[in-house]
Design a protein that fits this description.
alpha/beta; 6-stranded mixed beta sheet; 273 residues
């Protein structure tokens, strides 16, 4: 009965005997590093997430100035909302003789586009807004706007125009790209430069999320501190059950547009009022 505890105590003693010198060496190295002015970064578990740490003041000055310019130009200009057509998918179904699937895909896409138009008409007030099909994206980049904009029935209307002198931006529901703008992490003492330095990194905490995103006229996604996106339901959830689960996690397009509109107005008041 006393044999097992004795063996366990023996193994415990051997383990302590082996680890104790290693612990002493590690302690000496740590003391030496601290005397040299070298600090060690926090573990990823204890370090706050970058999205929580970040503030507008931490963004580079040129990005803050750029955000003010973009916000002013959008307020006075026009938001061009791009609506996808799924034309390649539909054409592929037709080519394979799957007419029913092609018609279903076209119907689902049309219903979603109508919801997007309706959401902006009901909840977006920050600027003028018009809509165009993704198949006309090249014309938008070339500023060939004649007859490409859509009415509320998704019909091209030549009477709808945009004043390019006042600026315009592109909005759409798409996969969010990583914000590659660099910002400062926790400061540390660099023994080589003999001064406080910062670690810089790009924020990717929101990468690959489905969102309502805004881009410039070259279709390049804007960056913080401009409120350039709001999380939104994925367009890929065509099945009613999948959509019900998805929208319970992410806002519907109506709520996303409403939330984004409020963020734009709030940021504008902060900058200009």
């Amino acid at each position: 009965m006393f044999l097992i505890p004795t063996i366990m105590n023996y193994k415990y003693f051997i383990t302590i005997f082996i680890l104790l010198p290693l612990f002493a060496v590690a302690t000496d190295e740590l003391d030496h590093s601290q005397k040299q002015g070298i600090s060690f970064p926090l573990s990823t578990e204890s370090r706050p997430q970058s999205s929580k740490m970040e503030s507008e003041a931490s963004r580079p000055k040129y990005l803050r100035q750029q955000a003010r310019v973009n916000l002013k130009r959008l307020r006075e200009g026009t938001l061009l909302v791009r609506l996808k057509t799924d034309e390649n998918k539909i054409a592929a179904f037709i080519k394979k003789g799957k007419k029913e699937q092609a018609e279903q895909t076209e119907r689902i896409r049309r219903d979603l586009n109508l919801r997007i138009v309706d959401a902006f008409n009901k909840h977006y007030t920050f600027s003028k807004v018009v809509f165009f099909y993704s198949s006309d994206s090249k014309k938008v980049t070339e500023q060939q706007f004649g007859g490409i904009f859509l009415n509320n029935k998704l019909e091209r209307d030549p009477d709808i125009s945009v004043d390019t002198n006042k600026g315009y931006y592109i909005g759409e529901i798409d996969v969010l790209e990583a914000d590659t703008a660099k910002h400062a992490d926790m400061p540390y003492w660099d023994p080589n430069t003999k001064k406080i330095e910062h670690t810089y990194y790009g924020s990717q905490s929101d990468y690959s999320r489905s969102a309502l995103v805004i881009r410039d006229k070259h279709f390049i996604q804007l960056r913080r501190p401009f409120p350039y996106y709001v999380a939104c339901e994925s367009e890929k959830a065509s099945d009613p059950l999948v959509k019900a689960v998805n929208t319970s996690i992410k806002p519907s397009v109506y709520k996303a547009v409403e939330k984004w509109n409020k963020k734009l107005h709030k940021k504008y008041r902060k900058y200009f009022e």
